[in-house]
Amino acid sequence: MTASVKLDPKGEFTFTYPEYNAGWNVQVNKLGGITDLATNKNYPYLFWEAKSKNLFYQTNQNTLAGFVINTDSTIQFLEEQLTALGLNETEQTDFITFWGPILQKEQFALIQFLVDNVYESTVAGLQISPQPDVMRRVYILCSPLKDSAIGLDVVPQEFKSFERFGFTVVEWGGSEIDLTNLKPQ
Amino acid sequence: MKFVFLFLAICSAGFLFAGDRKSILRQNYQVVSDEYNSEVPTGKCLVKGQVLGPNYTADGKQIPLSGATISTLDRKKTCVADNQGNYKLLLDATDTTVYMFMAGYEEIVIWNYNFQSKHVVTINFYPYFDQIYEVDKPVIYLYSEKELNAEVKFACKGALTFTYPVYNESWKVQVNSIGIKDAETGKAYPYLFWEAETNELDFNYEEDGISAAIIKTDSVISYLENSLAAMGLNATEQTDFITFWAPRMILHEFVLVQFLTGSLYDEKISTMQITPKPDALLRVFMLWQPLPSSSNPIKVIPQKFEKFDRNGFTVVEWGGTKLPSVELIP
């Protein structure tokens, strides 16, 4: 089947692959993989990066829904949360091999996941035609921390998995947020 | 129910990339003089000078590095710098290379110098501290139509910083037409992944220059696509490679790019032992460095890539490292 994918990031594209020219037009193959109709080349996924100025953790007064982890348990933590979010093994491996090393920069890390409609309103709008039967979008905000105290109540997030069927779309991404210039309250 | 699946991946938004370093290497040696001296025996050349370290005294003087070794590559002629950092080494006029090394500091190699008979050459060395390089993201794909059990062992220069699945002396996996599974846990993985930190990494140089390419920002993607395809990476491997490296490389106007494959990969990055032995093995490592301009002080020779035929049990590995920018003192 063919599909058209349009992204509306809050910010400017810095890199896309295959090239995004006002949209991606692709053929989705039964055995997996995507063919870019503009070039006829095959890709395992569509990829984009953008610069954004206003990305920050969502908080409610003194509470932050998220996690502060000891990064000795980074892998188990990510596997647990991504499984709860419904990512499959390939998606989890791609995610963990990218974000694991970044989270491990310090002994602790602050993490918040933006999922589905929060992703849409904070990171990027996504319009796919025909409309997917199922869509899951997961975005990680994270900050390596030397200290586990952040001056806010951190309340664990809970996620609902999802059933894949028909035309399924999964997107994941993230940003590392620099907290070093923030003053404690 | 037919299940068709589109997967989008994004990495975001202009932030700190793991392993991003902005250190600048100074010119780390200087040939102060090269003069005829009748006291030097015929057929010999005297090399002398001082080794000064990267630390300074309170009044701004560079501290000499006593104990640094200056030597020919085959180590047959060597000497050690004294308390003032001074050294003296008598070479043959047929020698062309001399180098300085000391634990904790970078190695400095002087290639292709014309050491002339009955000459005294004064060379000062200014080593900086050892650089730590990140060996980024070697990923190992295993393919086999027939199901088989394999064990993958590897040894890299430097210390492992991250592995996935977790590497405990080896990875034991099951490979079939669908993909890779961890033999112990049964979990599926698209590839095996490791990262390391090392302080021993540099371009590979040849007698007359460096096999590499200087690429301008807007040609990075096409250069990578063409090179990786010529080397035999498939569409997924190419996309994984390009989406990881291109965003980092296009931040610079010019980059110097070298691919290490085969025995050079073994020698400079890591050796790998796979049981059973693969029918086809491809390993590609990219070294790259931002350049201040489109020219390079060392002659750049275009790289030739060999074709790769997949068959039977096929293993493909790729990885890379960004080397720090170089700025030469005029």
Report the order of strands and helices of chain A: EEEEEEEEEHHEHEEEE
Inertia-based shape of chain B: elongated
- Which shape of chain A, going by the Cα principal axes? globular
User: What helical percentage do the residues of chain A reach?
Assistant: 10-25%
Number of helical regions of chain A: 3
Care to count the β-strands of chain B?
25
Q: Helix segment count of chain B?
A: 3
Give structural notes:
The complex is a heterodimer of chains A (185) and B (330). Helices cover 18% and strands 43% of the residues of chain A. Chain A contains three helices and 14 strands. Chain A has helices at residues 74-85, 89-103, 117-122; strands at residues 2-9, 12-17, 24-28, 34-36, 41-43, 46-51, 59-60, 63-65, 67-70, 108-115, 124-129, 134-145, 153-155, 166-176. In chain A, strand 4 and strand 5 form a beta hairpin. Chain A is globular. Chain A starts with a strand and ends in a 9-residue tail after the last strand. With 330 residues, chain B is mainly beta. Chain B has two domains: 29-125, Sandwich (Immunoglobulin-like); 133-322, no CATH class. Chain B is built from three helices and 25 strands. Chain B has helices at 220-231, 235-249, 262-268, and strands spanning 3-10, 29-36, 44-50, 52-56, 62-64, 69-71, 78-80, 86-92, 98-101, 108-110, 119-125, 133-143, 148-156, 159-164, 171-175, 180-182, 188-189, 192-198, 210-211, 213-216, 254-261, 270-275, 280-291, 300-301, 314-322. In chain B, the strands form six sheets. Chain B has a seven-stranded mixed beta sheet with strand order 14-18-12-25-23-21-20. Chain B starts with a strand and ends in an 8-residue tail after the last strand. Classes of the chains: A alpha+beta (185), B mainly beta (330). Chains A and B meet through strand 2, strand 5, strand 6, helix 2 and strand 14 of A and strand 1, strand 14, strand 17 and helix 2 of B. Strand 14 of chain A pairs parallel with strand 1 (3-10) of chain B, so a sheet runs across the interface.
